[in-house]
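---------- Forwarded message ----------

FYI, see the Apoptosis regulator BAX-like record below. Original note from H. follows.
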Amino acid sequence: MAPEGNGMSDERIGTALIKQVIEEELKDVPSEDVPDLDPLAVKNEQEQKMVNQLGKMIRIIGDRMKDDQEFQDAIDGVACGSGSKSDRFMQVADKVIEQGITWERIAVLFYVAGKLAVKMVQSHLPQTVKEILKWTVDFFRKKLLGWIRDHGGWINSFSELAVASVQRVSSFSSHSYGLIIIFISGLALGSFITWRLTRHP
């Protein structure tokens, strides 16, 4: 296992981030059936700041994607299709990263989990929210965590997002997730600057 800089755990941050994204999406759902999830598993203030910044980034991506019908249809397919919901979730998760893992695609996957949790509560299946959390965390640990560690950990995600998003803007793809990459460009740079400012008193 590779050492993690600044005493931060990429696994803890990722797990806490998934929970935060799901909880943030569920805050907008007018339902008494929203289940309580376990508290965020961060260890220190630096990890909490990282989770908060990443969570804001993913939330803004989600807000910008509300009118993207193709994207919403993919989420509806997991929520309403036939067969195992866990299998359908894994198919969508695999689809998100089929062309390779990037910071943008990790953000997309976490957003999918949050929106899917909302769909389940609206469908009067709130017990499924904890299953969605488990599926997403399992997928993160098995398929994303190694990549995150190999790419310097979450600490590097802001600068990498800024660089990648600027490159992608000039070569826009018609892929269903292409719009997210465009929306993230200004946000990623702003989040990185904010993180740098909060890091230095």
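H. also flagged this: The radius of gyration is 16 Å.
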